[in-house]
Design goal:
The chain has 507 residues and is mostly helical. Among the domains are: 186 residues, no CATH class; 138 residues, no CATH class. It has 22 helices and 4 strands. The strands form 2 sheets. Strands 1-2 form a two-stranded antiparallel ribbon. The chain has a two-stranded antiparallel ribbon with strand order 3-4. Strand 3 and strand 4 form a beta hairpin.
Length: 507
């Protein structure tokens, strides 16, 4: 919106111009405020309703009508005295505890201070209040400091986009407003007249075009207020206009609500519009990456098992090598007494030592379980590992499988077989947290229809981020809704009464 400033104490005989843009927040928009004012004014005065084409051709019939007038008076070409609206401005400032001496130039003073707080450039602030002494800048508005104007409108970057300005109402709503009842028909009549007679009616045509645009602003900002500021919908301005009772208006407000909630910026490059199917490819890549992470985690587990097998094979090789040397050594010791050392005697000694070693190392099932669980079973009692490297280890230990093989099925099997008797020596809080983590893994797998290994792979990332702390993991799982928070235990009324009666009896 461009304002022509023909008269003023800073003009010095020149015509100055001002520019305004729509604010991102509807309650701060100066153009919306002008649209509200004119809509309410035309509702009360009924101006231009009876105008014809001949009235618009003659500029003296309408050009001298003032913007600020007394709507209760009959002369709309009479200027409103400064004191009339200056008192109202001062009253508003006082009610908000704002001190400003220059009421009539409120925007020029307060605007500079606001720009200063927004850290706008100093030369841009000065240009907002006073033009540079050049002919071009004194005659046109193309050199106005738009970065500073954008900051005042709520935008920090160079790209200006206002969602509500893209939501245009339909023709029925436009023609049902106090401005729309006359501006569209008279604008179209002037366009047709210019096409037929080649008359120069640029002034009247520009004014009517501006009124049409301002009418859209009125409907757009009102719909935005209905969505963003519903507590202001009971203002008398919205109660006395029939346009806000139409079913088309409710539909338009719903459309505006969806747009403001989405806040889609058409200035941003839409990947889907530039490259068709990019969103589908992105989703497929995301699924592939997740599956790859699961496969990698499974590969790690497999490699750990392979590494354990290789270690066991090396131990067996060392045992066999040791038995060979022991057989040779014993044979040599026996021959030291005077017996002959033959190759057959050495082979018999090695075979005898190997058989004896195999008989000593061949364990029973219970002995194997005891050896493999030497880190869990101490002095005949089963203990939980304080901190696991991965959730896979926690899961295997709870069920007594894999690296944590337990013939009784780990804590899960011992609970089913012995109840809570076997774990009186275990930290109850650590046991409870471990049990809740296992339950959360089951819940996550059921909810997402995943296998146990896949579910553990997803949750193991969260476990690693908590520094492998079961307590921190439980809190994270509670936030994600996989676990419910335990209710604090409180004494019941019956328990308190029984304790009180016991105390009275003891007294």
């Amino acid at each position: 919106m461009i304002n022509q400033l023909a008269f003023g104490k800073t003009n010095h005989g020149r015509t100055l111009y001002g520019r305004a843009t729509r604010h991102r927040r509807v309650e701060h928009c100066c153009i919306g405020a002008l649209a509200f004012y004119l809509s309410y004014r035309f509702l009360l005065t009924g101006e231009f309703l009876e105008f014809t084409d001949e009235d618009w051709v003659r500029n003296e019939r309408w050009f001298n009508i003032k913007l600020l007038v007394d709507v209760n008076g009959s002369d709309l070409c009479k200027e409103m005295q400064n004191d009339l609206y200056g008192k109202h401005v001062k009253r508003v400032l006082t009610s908000n505890n704002l001190m400003c001496a220059k009421v009539l130039h409120l925007g020029r003073n307060m605007g500079a201070k606001i720009l200063d707080l927004l850290e706008a450039e100093g030369d841009k602030i000065r240009r907002m209040g006073q033009w540079n002494p050049s002919v071009f800048d004194n005659s046109y508005s193309s050199k106005l400091p738009m970065p500073a104007i954008r900051k005042l409108a709520g935008y920090e970057n160079k790209v200006y986009f206002n969602t509500r300005t893209t939501m245009y109402p339909n023709d029925l709503l436009r023609q049902s407003t106090p401005i729309g009842r006359w501006c569209y028909a008279q604008y179209n009549n002037l366009v047709a007249r210019i096409a037929e007679t080649d008359e120069s009616l640029s002034t009247a045509l520009s004014f009517l075009r501006f009124m049409c645009d301002l009418n859209d602003v009125f409907l757009q900002d009102t719909a935005a207020i209905f969505v963003k500021l519903p507590d202001r919908c009971n203002h008398p301005l919205f109660q006395c206009m029939q346009v806000f009772d139409m079913p088309e208006w409710k539909e338009y407000v719903s459309t505006m609500k969806r747009a403001l909630e989405g806040e889609d910026n058409p200035l941003d490059a839409s990947l889907e519009a530039v490259m068709r199917g990019i969103q589908q490819y992105h989703a497929a890549n995301t699924m592939a990456i997740n599956q790859l992470a699961t496969d990698v985690q499974a590969l790690k587990v497999t490699m750990n098992e392979v590494g354990q097998d290789i270690q066991d094979q090396r131990l067996d090789q060392k045992r066999q090598l040791a038995s060979t040397f022991m057989g040779v050594a014993k044979t040599l010791l026996e021959s030291a007494s005077g017996g002959a050392v033959t190759l057959q005697a050495i082979e018999k000694g090695i075979e005898k030592e190997s058989n004896q070693l195999n008989e000593e190392e061949e364990p029973t099932a219970s002995a194997t379980a005891t050896r493999e669980n030497s880190w869990n079973i101490k002095e005949g009692k089963y203990y939980l590992t304080p901190r696991h490297k991965t959730l896979y280890d926690l899961w295997d230990e709870w069920h007594g499988q894999g690296y944590y093989y337990d013939p009784e099925g780990g804590p899960d099997g011992r609970d089913k077989e012995h109840g809570s008797k076997w774990r009186k020596h275990i930290d109850g809080q650590h046991y409870s947290r471990t049990k809740r983590v296992v339950a959360a893994i089951k819940c996550y797998c059921e909810r997402n229809r995943l296998k146990v290994n896949e579910g553990i792979a997803h949750l193991d990332e969260c476990y690693q981020s908590t520094n492998r702390s079961v307590a921190n993991l439980v809190r994270d799982l509670q936030k994600k809704g996989l676990l419910e928070k335990k209710k604090t235990r409180r004494k019941t009324v019956a328990a308190v009464a029984a304790a009180a009666s016991t105390n009275e009896e003891s007294v």
